[in-house]
Amino acid sequence: VLGRTYEREVCSAARALEIAGERWSLLVLRNAAFAGHTRFTEFQESLGIAPNILAARLEHFVADGIMSVTDGPGGHPEYRLTNKGVDFKPVIIALTQWGDRWAAPEGPPVVYEHNQCGGHVSSRLYCDKCGKSPARKDVVARSTEVLERERQRRRLARSRPRSRR
Amino acid sequence: VLGRTYEREVCSAARALEIAGERWSLLVLRNAAFAGHTRFTEFQESLGIAPNILAARLEHFVADGIMSVTDGPGGHPEYRLTNKGVDFKPVIIALTQWGDRWAAPEGPPVVYEHNQCGGHVSSRLYCDKCGKSPARKDVVARSTEVLERERQRRRLARSRPRSRR
């Protein structure tokens, strides 16, 4: 539906950032996911965001299937995360952990809890072979045949004679 | 050093986004973290990013302590992630998982591996009380005394008589 910011990228992280990487986007999702906000005025007042920017973000989230919108009491639209939107929670938690470690000298302003048992929830890297949580430096990326196929497809597209485009 | 985009926010995720939330920022960090890129031209050619934007991003990363810069062979500057920068790996992995799930119909273009054992690495939520990986919907946020203290401090600052500002 929308233009693609990182069109050249064959990368799932880039795809996620096209949906939620604009300024304010992840904070709007955070307030929907963790503060229970549903109404335009709730987001607007809590974030102090310009109304036109908030309107654009919410509109994109609905268009991208991250949020659904329904008429609430009094006809006010209510924005709620879909499963696709709730799935940004681990991204927000990972960002929070970075900030807790590097930008929260007085301690974490917010902690995440498991509402079934009250335990503290964190995001961890997990290796499915050795069962350990690997050190950051020991995690590497390996391209798959999906990436190779897409790169080959693009090379072919570029090498086609201009007259046949 | 730099202006704060989300000044009102008492939130570690917002702090992380002030460092890495601008357009292209996380993709530059991704290429530094997982593609081994160190030189301006490597980032520029791989991303197809405008040189002035890339220069601004790298400058901010160095100012924020996310990257260090040294003179490489031939005097070309080489940019490398510090520990503070490497710590964005889990954020990139979490974004990748979102994209793999919701925006990669042909499958993941890239997988993450533990270079010690070759196992597949993923990001998981973990509850330190029940030891389970909680469902997204069962993870809630709870504010701490750090947040309450900061809110009170701000209320007091706002209520001071204007003449004394």
Please tell me about this protein's structure.
2 copies of one chain form a homodimer. By secondary structure, chain A is of the alpha+beta class. Chain A has helices at 12-20, 25-34, 40-47, 51-63, 83-86, 89-102, 145-159, and strands spanning 67-71, 77-81, 110-114, 121-127, 139-143. Chain A is 44% helix and 16% strand. Chain A has a two-stranded antiparallel ribbon with strand order 1-2. The mean pLDDT of chain A is 94. Chains A and B meet through helix 1, helix 2, helix 6, strand 3 and strand 4 of A and helix 1, helix 2, helix 6, strand 3 and strand 4 of B.
Topology:
The structure is a homodimer of 165-residue chains.
Chain A (H helix, E strand, L loop, with lengths): L11 H9 L4 H10 L5 H8 L3 H13 L3 E5 L5 E5 L1 H4 L2 H14 L7 E5 L6 E7 L11 E5 L1 H15 L6
Antiparallel strand pairs in A: 1-2
Task: List descriptors.
homodimer, 165 residues, alpha+beta, 7 helices, 16% strand
Output the radius of gyration of chain A. 20 Å
Largest interface: A-B, 83 and 83 residues
Distance between the termini of chain A: 23 Å
The strand count of chain A comes to 5
Largest sheet of chain A: 2 strands, antiparallel
The oligomerization state is homodimer
Physical arrangement of strands within the biggest beta sheet of chain A: 1-2
